[in-house]
């Protein structure tokens, strides 16, 4: 720990100074105008400030005979995002975020970055149509346009959330599963007096990629949805029907630049939710989504590749309102060639270059992405759309590596939920048993079994303690198996455990503790996927006997909502028991000051 003393002194002194100055601003009211002032204002200033200083060290047998890898790295940034929001009238709003960022160690302007992080305008046309141009967040159904949650997270302890919040903020991940796009968006709704109660429509057009004016064409994505809701069809039982239509089309503009080839990807789906019974005690729903996709490639005016497939996801949901209990079961069938660029693009790029210790060891091999990296490295995350199925790590997710829209899966899913944020106990259990529809490299099919459980216990509510005290648990078990001959057989098991404790020792002063533990053993074949999701090859069998342990502890002081400072220490150990990569440890000390104003 001696090597951390100097940076800790600098970090703590810097952040305390910032905290004091910011607290003063908040108290005198300059950070936010009063309600009376807001009513008269045309322009409002808000934003986010962040100071993040950290030191990361590596140790272990991996460094034997390694003279290139630095034993410790110091990194950090000072960042201010100034949000300018203007409302020239009651039907128009414009917003921009101007970013000023300086890397740790950059003095007198060295390393300074000034850029526009966000820019959009929105308003209402004729009191009927809402529009937005510029940066926008788009989310549709899980099979058409959706940003599935990343791997390595079940019920993440609070101690890991500050660094994950940075990743989410930098990658424009919203509260739900939205994707950040840049283009135009329109929404409007209709109400009716008979039969239908309402109809809501939305459409968008965004540019995914610009042209290089040579061989790379501009890539665009457009889509729309229509959602309908009926009147109550049977007042005695509370029966009603909600249904909708979704369409997304991703295409290359071959009129841009000198490009002669491009792709087309169209996905269409229909959704339905029949509320059969709804009373004060319980409700019963039959719901689902089904549709199809088409993927093709164009060379001039000729179609050089084309494939299409379907999906169906139908089930029933039962809510016991008096017990705050929710049950659901679905049948899922997603075809082998089903492809949806907007839904299957992952958040994590497992083949991306890591920001910290991407290579290590005497031969400078690329270090495998771990729990440590998934919890704190923004270089692994993206909001970009991929035209191919992205690489995945079967240790973290093998059943649904691309979310619910994972192709070549057939089986059943079930989940049960209990409680909410107001309850003493919140619990959620998800399970799935899936099989491949089409074998990969063999006629034998893989079988997948998945169980995920998440529990949050509000201990302070149980013991009537004034300060906050919360315990979190997350657990995931996954098994992959395949029969056949010795060369065909597959057997992989993985267990991921998360434990967290958040204790408010004094008013606004919290003690944080958390751990993540991964054990994976067995073997699997991980396909190499080329363009149009065609399997190029199966490398040799991947043998896995891994153990990863991530421990974290720290304290956090909350000045007010959205303004806090945290000091933490994380320790990570990785053991690869059957390959040539020796074991290693990573240690991290960091201090983070965040101010939302």
Estimate what percentage of residues fall within beta strands: over 45%
Which regions are unreliable across 5 or more consecutive residues at pLDDT < 50?
A: 1-38
Number of helices: 6
Q: Give the number of DSSP strands.
A: 26
Anisotropy-based shape: globular
Question: Topology, pairings included?
Answer:
Elements: H1 5-28, H2 35-40, E1 43-59, E2 72-89, E3 92-103, E4 112-125, E5 129-138, H3 161-170, E6 179-191, E7 196-209, E8 218-230, E9 240-253, E10 261-278, E11 282-299, E12 302-320, E13 325-334, H4 341-344, E14 359-360, E15 365-366, H5 371-376, E16 409-418, E17 425-435, E18 447-458, H6 459-462, E19 469-482, E20 490-506, E21 509-524, E22 528-529, E23 535-537, E24 542-560, E25 563-576, E26 584-596
Antiparallel strand pairs: 1-2, 1-26, 2-3, 3-4, 4-5, 5-6, 6-7, 7-8, 8-9, 9-10, 10-11, 11-12, 12-13, 13-16, 14-15, 16-17, 17-18, 18-19, 19-20, 20-21, 21-24, 22-23, 24-25, 25-26
Question: How does this model look, in words?
Answer:
The chain has six helices and 26 strands. The protein has helices spanning 5-28, 35-40, 161-170, 341-344, 371-376, 459-462; strands at 43-59, 72-89, 92-103, 112-125, 129-138, 179-191, 196-209, 218-230, 240-253, 261-278, 282-299, 302-320, 325-334, 359-360, 365-366, 409-418, 425-435, 447-458, 469-482, 490-506, 509-524, 528-529, 535-537, 542-560, 563-576, 584-596. The strands form three sheets. The chain has a 22-stranded antiparallel barrel. A two-stranded antiparallel ribbon has the order 14-15. The radius of gyration is 26 Å and the shape is globular. The model is unreliable at 1-38 (pLDDT under 50).
């Amino acid at each position: 720990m001696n090597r951390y003393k100097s940076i800790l002194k600098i970090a703590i002194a810097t952040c305390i100074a910032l905290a004091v100055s910011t607290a003063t601003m908040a108290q005198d009211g300059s950070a936010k105008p009063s309600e009376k002032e807001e009513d008269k204002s045309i322009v409002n200033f808000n934003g986010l400030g962040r100071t993040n200083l950290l030191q990361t060290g590596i140790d272990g047998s991996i460094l034997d005979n390694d003279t290139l890898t630095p034993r410790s790295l110091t990194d950090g940034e000072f960042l201010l995002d100034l949000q300018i929001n203007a409302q020239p009238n009651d039907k128009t709003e414009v917003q921009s975020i101007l970013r000023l960022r300086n890397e740790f160690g950059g003095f007198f302007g060295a390393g300074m970055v000034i850029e526009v992080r966000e820019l959009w305008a929105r308003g209402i046309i004729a009191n009927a149509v809402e529009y937005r141009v510029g940066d926008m967040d788009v989310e549709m159904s899980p099979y058409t346009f959706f940003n599935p949650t990343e791997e390595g997270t079940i019920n993440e302890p609070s101690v890991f959330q500050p660094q994950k919040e940075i990743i989410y903020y930098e990658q424009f991940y919203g509260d739900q599963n939205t994707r950040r796009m840049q283009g135009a968006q329109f929404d409007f709704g209709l109400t009716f007096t008979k039969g239908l109660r309402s109809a809501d429509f939305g459409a968008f057009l965004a540019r995914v990629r610009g042209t290089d004016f040579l061989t790379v064409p501009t890539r665009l994505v457009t889509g729309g949805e229509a959602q309908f809701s009926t009147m109550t069809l049977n007042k005695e039982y509370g029966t009603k029907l909600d249904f909708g239509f979704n369409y997304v089309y991703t295409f290359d503009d071959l009129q841009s630049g000198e490009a002669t080839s491009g792709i087309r990807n169209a996905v269409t789906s229909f959704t339905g939710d029949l509320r059969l019974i709804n009373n004060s005690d319980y409700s019963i729903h039959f719901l689902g989504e089904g549709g199809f996709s088409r993927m093709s490639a164009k060379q001039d005016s000729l179609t050089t590749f084309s494939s299409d497939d379907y999906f169906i996801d139908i089930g029933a949901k039962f809510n016991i309102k008096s017990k705050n209990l929710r049950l659901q079961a679905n049948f899922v069938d997603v075809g082998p060639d089903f492809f949806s660029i907007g839904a299957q693009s992952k958040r994590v790029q497992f083949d991306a270059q890591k920001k910290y210790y991407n290579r290590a060891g005497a031969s400078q091999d690329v270090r495998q992405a771990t729990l440590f990296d998934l919890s704190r490295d923004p270089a692994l995350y993206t909001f970009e759309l991929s035209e191919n199925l992205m690489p995945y790590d079967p240790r973290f997710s093998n059943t649904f590596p691309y979310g619910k829209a994972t192709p070549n899966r057939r089986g059943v899913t079930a989940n049960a939920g209990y409680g909410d944020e107001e309850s003493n106990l919140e619990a959620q259990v998800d399970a799935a048993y899936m099989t491949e529809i089409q074998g990969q490299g063999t006629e034998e099919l893989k079988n997948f079994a998945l169980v995920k459980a998440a529990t949050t216990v509000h201990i302070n509510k149980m013991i009537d303690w004034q300060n906050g005290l919360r315990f979190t648990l997350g657990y995931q078990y996954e098994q992959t198996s395949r029969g056949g001959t010795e060369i065909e057989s597959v057997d992989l098991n993985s267990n991921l455990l998360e434990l967290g404790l958040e204790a408010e020792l004094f008013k606004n002063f919290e003690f944080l503790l958390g751990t993540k533990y991964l054990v994976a053993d067995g073997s699997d074949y991980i396909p190499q996927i080329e363009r149009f999701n065609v399997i190029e090859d199966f490398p040799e069998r991947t043998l896995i006997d891994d153990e990863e342990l991530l421990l974290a502890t720290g304290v956090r002081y909350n000045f007010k909502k959205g303004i806090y400072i945290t000091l933490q220490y994380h320790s990570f150990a990785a053991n690869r028991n059957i390959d040539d990569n020796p074991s290693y440890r990573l240690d991290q000390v960091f201090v983070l000051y965040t101010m939302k104003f």
